[in-house]
Amino acid sequence: MPGLRDERRLTSEQVTAPVADDWLPFETTDDIPALEAVFGQERAVRAIEFALGMQAKGYNLYASGPDGFGKSTIVEMFLRRRAAAAEAPLDWVYVHNFHDPDKPAAISLPPGTAHSFAQEVRHAVQAAARDINAVFESDDYARQRQAIADQLDAMRAQVLEALQEQARQVNFALQAGAAGISTAPLINSEPATEESFNALSDEEKAKIAESRRTLEKTIQEGLLSLRAGERQAMEVAEQLDAKTAAFAVNHLFDHLQERYGNDQEIREFLEAIRDDLAENHTSMREDQQPANPMAQLARISAARRYEVNVYVSNDPQRGAPVVVERNPTYYNLIGRIEYEGNMGVSITDHTLIRAGALAHANGGYLVVRLRELLNTPAALEGLKRALMAGLITVENLSENFQLVPTTALRPEPIPLAVKVVLVGESVLYGLLYRYDPDFRELFRVKADFETEFVRTRESASGLASIIRAECDRGELLDFTRAAVCRLVEHSSRMVDDRRRLSANMGAFLDVVRQADHWARQDGAETVHERHILKALDERIYRSSLIADRIQSSMSDGTIHVETEGGRIGQINALSVFDLGDMMFGSPSRVTCVTSAGRGTIVMVERESEMAGRIHNKGFLILRGFLAHKFGQDRASSLHASLTFEQLYSDIDGDSASSTELYALLSSLAEVPIDQSVAVTGSVDQLGRVQPIGGANAKIEGFFDICRARGLTGKQGVMIPRTNIENVILRHEVAEAIAAGQFHVWAIDSIEDGIELLTGIPAGRERNAEGRYPEGTIFRLVEDRLAEFASSLERRPATTGADGHVPIPHQGPYPTPPGIPPRLPPEPPVIV
Predict the structure, then answer these.
(1) Nearest in space to 81 (alpha carbons), one of 453, 364, 282
(2) Alpha carbons 130 and 111: distance in angstroms, whole number
């Protein structure tokens, strides 16, 4: 029916998406400004502004949408804009807790002052060490110590002289040694020997023993007096040392007290350092070197307790921090306590506490990709725990899994005030929101990012400005107006809708950069339309190995697909192969064989479990259409078998349901279908043809095989009329359509389709007798079904339930042939 084909044929303008002449009034992108605003994402922008404006707990943000659509870029732009206008948060330091060394104290400081405070404390301690050594090496200190020593020696000499006098009075001699004072009786003014002592009488021996007891008691009293004097001298020396150390230290911290003394925690810390230095001055003195390595280690550790660990420092000129954590492990996010080895011993202290991204973002904003966060469940739990408590508590994970509790640092928690933005897919948000109550309480705001937006003059100009911004950012060549128009058309093609543009800026700008490459290869000064087409063609070529192999197999007859002539019960369906990085279309031969039966319609792929649920649903609609058009009784009188010939992969989708119905009607009416026409479209039970996906890939796939065999001017594709707005074909396909070498027809119903495929009227309405008109497809089908019904009445009772004579099984069925050896494995097929 030539008239019907002409009426349904689409023009080249209808299969492309050209940009209006007045939409982009510039010569090159150098004439327009770079885009700084966000367009096409108004819903997401409102959600972001709401989340950032809400100060209540739990109003953190989840940026939802596929990758490559600018979620992170847009969110970061808003965060940095708001952060720049905010005040910088406080600095935080960890210091030694002199009252409880296992619990380092956290101290806040004005922004930007933590490093200077730490440096001033370090300088004060270093100066104290120098002054302590200097004052203890001074002549004045030496004289005072010597005076104390001389006084002690005089007292010691006086006590010993008194004891000597007491000994002489009782005729005894005293001998002072390292072990103490020993006594010996005198006989004839000489110390008694064993022989001389034995020569004495018992009365003289008893007298000497009594004198010894009296003298030893006197010596004991004298020694006690001597020790008391030594203790007093030591106390005086210690008081002198403390006074001397305090004199050397105190004035060094006066300026720190004046500068930071308004903060009670800092004042107490400085006073604790000053008192500890004065009390433990020996650790600073060079004349008090440790005697062994462990003592040396203890001295080093003692000196580090005066250090200030700058945990977080903020620049007061840069506003609030914006931290993007790209590797959100537990330690990178929460922080950690490090250990260092020294002489075979692992030690730690407050100086080894390290901040994570949460601490660096405290007072500002933290951006994390949810997929990376889910790779470390402990990190997610740590983040939620910190947000719920409003505190950053640094602790190592290993401490939670120790069988025996050990002493470890317990740093003082730091107050947390941060806005967290998670970036991820919508499905992840739905799962966590449904199954994780804590997540639901903490991330109350979701910003849904559009995958596409309306194509208007403003949005087209916005894309041009984005191209200009990418040129500036990547130092690319300027793009001509024609090149930008082709890119805008490509953006519509990315979403298969001439009325909309893609929001996938990642993939869009990838084409921009590739076009710049080919322009430079061409030696051009600007990027022209031909460079855009080159970039698109080259990208297809790089990923089209499997598509070319399948097309080659069709061209040499390995895969049988006809593009000319007519066949009964055979039609070219259009399938889409999904490779991940690209999708391409290819024709598939669908055949149908019918006979008398009991209403059974068999789909081979369904029976062999190679078809998905959506495809099965579309197939099951066929019987409903037959019952609607020809009555339940007649629809129950046939047996039909349909299959995708030479298709060995799993299939899914319902866009072949109309194709299968055309093959079934052709087989029943015994009318050939034009093989130069390929078909796609789903169908409902009333015969309305419904839209499908992948229209561009399907049309182009059939065009490629027809072009390889030679375009005849009769070949083309039949699509649902509701898909017209989705058709944006490659430039060479559009050129062939403009030249009348290839065609695209749009239909509304099965009647339109069967008429275009067979050239015979469908028979849309029944006549007064309740029958379809003579010579129409539906009349032929109706008559054939009536024949099937009559033949069933004459069949013997030995027929099976489906109306066929059973065939006994005679051994295993032969294995069906596989994919030809030289063909690559086929990807999943969507029909």
Answers:
(1) 364
(2) 31
Extended strands (E) in 167-276: 172-177, 180-187, 190-191
* Residues found in the chain: 831
Surface-to-core class of residue 771, CB atoms within 10 Å of its CB (0-12 exposed, 13-18 middle, 19+ buried)? middle
Among candidate residues 310, 317, 290, 318, the one with its CA nearest the CA of residue 302: 290
- 721-751 pLDDT, tens digit per residue, is 999 999 999 999 999 999 999 999 999 999 9
Is residue 116 annotated as a catalytic residue, yes or no?
no
**Other Cβ atoms within 10 Å of 774 Cβ, number:** 10
Q: Residue 596's beta-bridge partner residues?
A: 638
Contact between 605 and 654 (Cβ < 8 Å): no
The Cβ-side half-sphere exposure at 117, using a 13 Å CA radius, reads 29
Question: Which pLDDT score is estimated for 773?
Answer: 92
pLDDT digits (tens, 9 = 90+) for 506-539: 889 999 999 999 999 999 999 999 999 999 999 9
Instruction: Return the exposure string of 730-739: e unless at least 16 CB atoms fall within 10 Å of the residue's CB, then b.
Output: beebbebbee
Tens-place pLDDT, residues 378-425: 999 999 999 999 999 998 887 666 655 566 789 999 999 999 999 999
Least confident of 33-42, 222-231, 739-748: 33-42
Please give the model's pTM, rounded to 2 decimal places.
Answer: 0.76
d(CA 455, CA 133): 80
CA–CA separation, 277 and 570 (whole Å):
98
**Amino acid, single-letter form, for residue 647:** L
Q: Which of 419, 534, 629, 698 is catalytic?
A: 698
> Rounded CA gap, 511 and 700, in Å?
20
3-state secondary structure 207-231: HHHHHHHHHHHHHHHHHHHHHHHHH
Which residue do the tokens 């260092």 mark? 340
Distance of CA 271 to the CA centre of its chain: 47
All domains in the chain, ordered by first residue? 17-35+451-542 (1.10.8.60), 71-89+314-403+411-448 (3.40.50.300), 111-311 (no CATH), 558-761 (3.30.230.10)
CA–CA separation, 666 and 787 (whole Å): 16
Which pLDDT band, with edges at 50, 70 and 90, does 332 fall under?
Answer: very high
Q: Which of 655, 658, 666, 667 is catalytic?
A: 655
Known active-site residue 698:
yes
Q: How far apart are CA 162 and CA 219, in angstroms?
A: 9
Instruction: Give the residue among 577, 576, 604 at the shortest CA–CA distance from 590.
Output: 604
Residue 703 has what pLDDT?
95
Nearest residue to 587 via CA among 704, 696, 702, 703: 702
Measured between alpha carbons, how far is 495 from 454 in angstroms, rounded to an integer?
11
Report phi then psi at 755, rounded to 5.
-65, -40
Comparing CA positions, the residue from 277, 282, 288, 267 lying closest to residue 246 is 277
Q: Report CA torsion sign: 189, 194, 195, 197.
A: positive
Q: Give the chain's count of helices (H) and strands (E).
A: 29, 34
